[in-house]
Design goal:
The complex is a heterodimer of chains A (101) and B (139).
Chain A (H helix, E strand, L loop, with lengths): L1 H22 L7 H14 L4 H9 L1 H21 L22
Chain B lengths: L1 H6 L4 H23 L8 H18 L7 H23 L3 H4 L4 H28 L10
Classes of the chains: A mainly alpha (101), B mainly alpha (139).
Chain lengths: 101, 139
């Protein structure tokens, strides 16, 4: 029963959020787009607007993107126990002690 | 376990072809990384290409002689450099005030991001490939 209620609430939330998003109609002037495409060579001396945005205008985005990869890897290392080397015959006793040796 | 090992011996053709392909993979990866600010591409794409070197090595030579904790440590070092570089160079306004260093800054950041992504994807691939937590591995 609880799960059904939860599912209905989630579905209702999804529908409401989608409806709000779809009905929301707001046109913004492409100020940033025009500025970046006009000035990126002078500002960052990159020949590629994507590189200019990624590495200069929106560097915070790139930083957190790299951090997301690290977070994913840390979670994966946590949940997939490794098994190092073929030495010994024990199968499950070896836990890595963390740290890099 | 030994039967699994014997069945998974790679053929000579695969081994030779992948050995020939190694330098080209490295060359393509570093080309994408270093030319990231001239052509489409950049650190993330080039890093994924560099990780394919480790994947190909695993395909022909599935021996766990690379400690993924070590690779992970290097990856964290490069992430620290990625965080440090913009803080010291970009957010202080140094790069935007000295346009002659901008190309060097872009190349440096592309190389750092490429190495970090490549090492990170290699950690992922190694850990999934040599996962022996529950039951047998898929090989």
């Amino acid at each position: 029963m609880r799960y059904i209620v939860l599912a209905l609430v989630s579905l209702l939330l999804f529908v409401v959020v989608t409806a709000v998003t779809v009905r929301h109609d707001e046109r913004l002037d492409p100020v940033l787009y025009e500025y970046v495409t006009a000035n990126f060579r002078d500002d960052t001396s990159a020949r590629n607007a994507v590189a200019a945005v990624l590495l200069n205008y929106r560097m915070y985005d790139t930083l957190l993107e790299a951090l997301i990869l690290l977070t994913a890897i840390i979670g994966m290392l946590q949940f997939l126990p490794g098994y190092h080397g073929e030495k010994g015959s024990e199968d499950s006793g070896e836990r890595d002690g963390g740290g890099n040796e | 376990m030994s039967n699994v090992r014997e069945l998974s011996e790679p053929s000579t053709i695969t081994r030779v072809v992948v050995s020939i392909l190694y330098p080209f993979m490295l060359m393509l990866g570093f080309y994408i990384i270093i030319n990231g600010h001239y052509t489409p591409g950049g650190g993330f794409q080039g890093g994924a290409t560099l990780a394919s070197v480790f994947i190909a090595r695993y395909v022909v030579f599935p021996v766990e002689d690379i400690r993924d904790e070590t690779v992970h440590g290097w990856e964290r070092l490069f992430l620290a450099l990625i965080v440090l570089g913009p803080i010291l160079l970009l957010f202080t306004g140094f790069v935007n005030d000295h346009p002659e260093y901008q190309i060097a800054y872009l190349t440096l950041m592309d190389i750092l991001i490429g190495l970090q992504v490549g090492l990170g994807l290699s950690v992922v691939v190694f850990r999934f490939a040599f996962f022996r937590g529950v039951g047998k591995s898929w090989r």
